[in-house]
Amino acid sequence: MGKENIWLLVIWISLAKKCTGFSTTTEDTVLSNTTEWITDLSDIQSKFSLRTAEIPDDDLCYIVPGQKNTISECQFNLEAKTFVVIHGWTVTGMYESWVPKLVSALYEREPSANVVVVDWLERASQHYPTSAAYTKLAGRDVAKFVQWLQRELHYPWEKLHLLGYSLGAHVAGIAGLLTNNKINRITGLDPAGPGFEYADEQSTLSPGDALFVDVLHTNTRGSPDRSIGIQRPVGHVDIYPNGGTFQPGCNLQNTMMMIATSGFQNMDQIVKCSHERSIHLFIDSLVNKQQESMAFRCGSKEAFNKGLCLSCRKNRCNKVGYGTNKVRSVRSSKMYMRTREIMPYKVFHYQVKVHVFSQDQLSFTEQPILVSLFGTEGEKEDIPFTMPFLNSNSTISFLLTTDVDIGELLMVKMKWDKDSYFSLSDWWGNNKFRIRKLRIKAGETQAKVIFSSREGEFAYLVRGGGDAVFVKSKEEESSQKAERRHKLKMNGSLFKGNAEGTSPPK
Ligand SMILES: *[C@@H]1O[C@H](CO)[C@@H](O)[C@H](O)[C@H]1NC(C)=O
Ligand SMILES: *[C@@H]1O[C@H](CO)[C@@H](O)[C@H](O)[C@H]1NC(C)=O
Ligand SMILES: *[C@@H]1O[C@H](CO)[C@@H](O)[C@H](O)[C@H]1NC(C)=O
User: For bias kind Basic and acidic residues, which ranges apply (predicted)?
Assistant: First the structure.
């Protein structure tokens, strides 16, 4: 069975290219703008299961559009918000193991809510291109369902939040497109790429499908038409954790370890580790409210990796997952963040900026550097970093992350490690740079701190040598004010009320 899954995944990827044209050939009547069809409930094939916090893993009560009695039978709470969870393509024709996990996490965060799981398993377990084309019919079913809730029960649109994974993200998008009023929020969890990367907005999740559309992209490796997750931004806020291509902890080594410890029964999860990480990042944001991750808007992955994008001005940063602030930013803006390998995924982001001097002309590439951070709350020693370039009289900027909350930074140590080319001349300390100051910007607090050498005017970064030690310099008082201002802003207007998910975006 494990082998079969891998095989099917390969098929999925290889079919991607062939099916790029399907969306334009599907009947246009599906998207006709007459509203009569939406009240015709006779052809709905999807099922809507209202799950409970007590039994999150089984379909015990279906809400049937057109049968009002099912509302009370299933104990649908008309006063509370409703989450509609939509699964993606499935090899086995069964729900994947993440479904009850997400249901439980939603109830943990919002105990009075209704969590409805859409069952379109029949259509979702065909050959990938067929299932991909069926997103239109499944989306139509979901549109009819929510439209009926609204028409029959006056259930408010602003209480609706659709969450779709993979193909399910496009199902949610199509549902949002077809309803007469705008759904409050759609969360796309690594929306499927094959067949959708070049499709029009009517066939994919897009910003017009809800008042607020937020998207996590976690498995976008490869050329655009072969990537499992869609590469282009399709929402108001599009977050690319770890660059969006591939997630930490999902490499072959970890995969082998998981197989060794748990056998092949969780093969679907192992194969789709990065794809499914989008769901677990969202679950993390629901259950670990105190450790909310932050993402930052950036022009490119490369600029982000240089630490150049840790600004929160003008909505450039945002919380990740459930608490995402509803900003309807400019089109195609991508946001980036780093994460840990396991839950809780949060890390703290720092930009380190340093000017290195030397008398002699020195030039290195790919140098191993170790940085240690010491602060009021904790410390993290020997964070490894590969410096792409190390040249005389140049300014270097790089991104450093820790999984430890260090608090206010007090001291920084930096060490130039030996690499395999370390030679005799290095013993004489010929390869060394002088550093006067170190500037660090913390993404999470927006604090900017300037450090100066602990001993003398300069600290020395010596190849294979000891630590260059820096302490907080007196110049940075003005930046503490900036940090206080930022904290006030985080408490106040910027993020106020948004975690409730009810306030309309501006
Ligand atoms: C439906 O769309 C057509 C064009 O596609 C337009 O002419 C017509 O007015 C629309 N009808 C409604 C009810 O919006
Ligand atoms: C670097 O700059 C210093 C002066 O700031 C100068 O003395 C030194 O020669 C420069 N080094 C190189 C390699 O250009
Ligand atoms: C932010 O709000 C919390 C509780 O709502 C409060 O304890 C804290 O002092 C506030 N911080 C600032 C900087 O106003």
Answer: 473-482
